[in-house]
Amino acid sequence: MVTKTEETQLNRLEGQVENGGGGAWDYLCFVRKLKVRRSDKVLKYGLSILNDPKKRSSLGPEEWTLYEQVAIAAMDCQCFDVAKDCINVLQKRFPESKRVGRLEGMLLEAKGSWTEAEKAYLSLLEDNPLDQVIHKRRVALAKAQGNMSGAIEFINKYLETFMADSDTWRELAEIYVSLQMYKQAAFCYEELILAQPTVPLYHLAYADVLYTLGGLENLQAAKKYYSSTIELTGGKNTRALFGICLCTSAIAQLTKGRNKEEKDSPDLQSLATAALEKDYKQRASDKVSVLGSALKSLKVSS
Amino acid sequence: MAEDLVLDTAIRDWVLIPLSVVMVLIGVLRYFVSKLMRSYQVPDAKIVKEGQVIVRARNLRSGANFIPPKAFRARRVYFSNEENGLLFVPKGQAQNAQAQMFSDPNMAMDMMKKNLSMIIPQTLTFAWVNFFFSGFVAAKIPFPLTQRFRSMLQNGIDLSTVDVSYVSSRSWYFLNLFGLRGLFSLILGEENAMDDTQRMMQMSGFGFDPTKSLSAEKDSLDIIQHEWALPKFEQRAEAVLRKLVS
Predict the structure, then answer these.
(1) Which terminus of chain B has fewer CB atoms gathered within 10 Å of its CB, N or C?
(2) Contact B241 A190 (CB under 8 A)
(3) Coiled-coil ranges per the record (chain A) (predicted)?
């Protein structure tokens, strides 16, 4: 995940390169480090460096990394001939390489020849059954074909061996949510929270899933996770604030008449609404009235 | 009693500096040789899986208070279940890892190579130092020492009345042996700064022994009491919001 300072730095470099200020190589290295997807710019500036033989030779051994980066960007922008050229250059330099094999598989995938791509990946996996990247590419292949259950099956098998990989758990959670399998998605988000308990994103997503599942216990748990998100982000997360309001009104609806529940945080909802109003006044003052009516409808039902 | 001996500057020029230079060069040479000789070790699927299981169990322990109690209990049973829990290792298999490591020819070869690249330069340098640079006082240590160090530091010097601060070149060799790590980290980059002492420690370790760590993780997991931290968060969120709104 990219931090705010890195984002501003990236934008600054991008602006600098676009206005002809040089520094294209720094920009490309930075994009590569942050794993951000800016394929059209990478393609444009990468090709300009690669087609200029003087600049290319000044790169030294980094030249091959640049070829790989440009090949992937070309595939993103559907420029298959550019990608094919880069891959050929790499193959001449590094025959029998796993990395080049992966690029070839990606090219087949980009062109849409699913079965051949699958065959290529399977043969690569035979040589290296523990290669994480190839496994993930297989999952991406299944997902691109729209075969969600196949993708889930591949990910589960992958996670049996590599169960400490947070990115994969995240991907699995998102797939489950898209298929509305909320209980399984909740499990995945619990794994993510265990691995990185201070990342508010996972608390928020877990709270969303719990709220969607419904039921009194889940709603109460969702409220708690929304509050932990608020605490972790210092109260600035609008979604969590809304979540608190919604949860409180939903809980109140479910427990109407049963006043045995002791409210250990009675002011939470009013505080959340106050914070929301303040936020909207600051940032989107024309929408304050919409906000007001929405909140009022929530309060009425509570 | 302690008369100051005046040491010839020629000693500094021809003993101390060349010895340090030689040791630095040998360290750099060893680094490059090890890079050339490094053989690619195919990771065993079982070992990779066990490593990842341990990481996941550790995550479960550290983050246990952040997930609901039911979820925690379900995971704990999954890990430490008697029959097919991930962390459960039947007693018979426990001793196999070390025996396997010895019998596996590839691993034995690797260990041998690593040990050799360590022992041979040390032995050669030490013999060289002894042969050429013994029998005279090489340096003076700036702080006073007790008499017990005499046998260690003044090995070539056969006079028993010389102050212990005056040491032989053998001790300069040992000083360099333990102290050149900082220099190597400058020259070779941060992660390659491996001093000889660290390599010696690596030599004695037998590498990754998963079964012991698995049962250790299982025990610590069994001990944990789950205390759901989330209810407190509601009050903390209230406090945060109060500060924000006011």
Answers:
(1) N
(2) no
(3) none
Which of B84, B130, B79 has its CA nearest to residue A194?
B79
| Inter-chain touch B230–A197, beta carbons under 8 Å | no
Residues of B in contact with A187 (CB under 8 A): 71
pLDDT at B105: 65
Domain boundaries, chain B: 9-245
* CA atoms in the 13 A half-sphere facing the CB of A175: 23
What dihedral angle (degrees, nearest 10) is formed by the CA atoms of A210, A215, A216, A221? -10
Q: Per-residue pLDDT tens for A115-128?
A: 999 999 999 888 88
- pLDDT for A174: 92
Q: How far apart are CA B204 and CA A217, in angstroms?
A: 54
**Which amino acid makes up residue B71?**
A
> What's the pTM?
0.73
Testing the interface with B: which of A167, A224, A229, A270 to mutate, by most B Cβ within 10 A? Answer: A224
CB A135 within 8 A of CB A154: yes
Read off the pLDDT of residues A221-280 as tens digits, 9 standing for 90 and up.
888 888 888 888 887 888 888 888 888 888 888 877 666 555 556 677 788 888 888 888
